[in-house]
Specification:
CATH topology: Pnp Oxidase, Chain A
Shape: globular
CATH class: Mainly Beta
Strand content: 25-35%
Number of strands: 6
Radius of gyration: 18 Å
Order of helices and strands: HHHEEEHEEHEH
Oligomer: single chain
Strand order of the largest sheet: 1-2-3-6-5-4
Helix content: 25-40%
Number of domains: 1
CATH architecture: Roll
Number of helices: 6
CATH superfamily: Electron Transport, Fmn-binding Protein, Chain A
Length: 179
């Protein structure tokens, strides 16, 4: 966990505000017992986590790709080639959506703006990635873009162990019936 107490408090405030503004449909699926609080969310997310990232083309068409997401200090970070389509799209249209969905019954979803990071924050990300990958992202190629998502909406949920067991049992029964 990389979050300070203030960062955890800010993340919890964002989560609470996001659920308060969520649709009735979403609040029904992500009922209070299923909601991830800030502390559980940061404890659960591995680094890297396969982060599904949605950007927008110049024609307004959505594009979905996967990046190695790193949840640090209450924000998603990722790198990409500076000349990649996603880097070009983010530079022109920074609004993004991202999700981490490692399995059925678990997900973290956010909407926000992606921005290039530099200075001490860039160095923090380089050092983190070097620990994770055993080499600096600078070795991945020239012109690596270091980005952070500043979320304005973020929620997370997880089925309880009992719900997950029932879900898996129902799935097995369905597969058996469909044979």
């Amino acid at each position: 966990m990389h979050e300070t107490p203030d960062e955890l408090a800010a993340l919890q405030h964002l989560i609470d505000a996001s659920f308060a503004a969520a649709s009735e449909h979403l609040r029904g699926i992500m009922a209070p017992p299923r909601r991830l609080g800030a502390a559980q969310l940061v404890a659960d997310v591995p680094s890297p986590a396969v982060l599904n990232l949605a950007t927008v083309t110049a024609r307004g068409e959505p594009r979905l790709s996967a990046v190695d997401g790193h949840f640090l200090h209450g924000r998603w970070y990722f790198t990409t080639a500076g000349n990649s389509p996603k880097a070009v799209q983010v530079a022109a249209r920074p609004a993004v959506s991202a999700s981490y969905t490692p399995r059925d019954g678990y997900g973290i979803f956010c909407h926000g703006n992606a921005t290039l990071v530099d200075g001490a924050e860039r160095q923090m990300l380089i050092e983190h990635c070097t620990r994770v990958y055993g080499q600096s992202p600078e070795t991945f190629g020239e012109g690596i873009a270091y980005l952070r998502i500043d979320p304005h909406w973020l929620v997370g949920f997880a089925f309880s162990d009992e719900e997950m067991a029932a879900f898996l049992k129902e799935r097995e029964e369905l597969v058996a019936r469909l044979g």
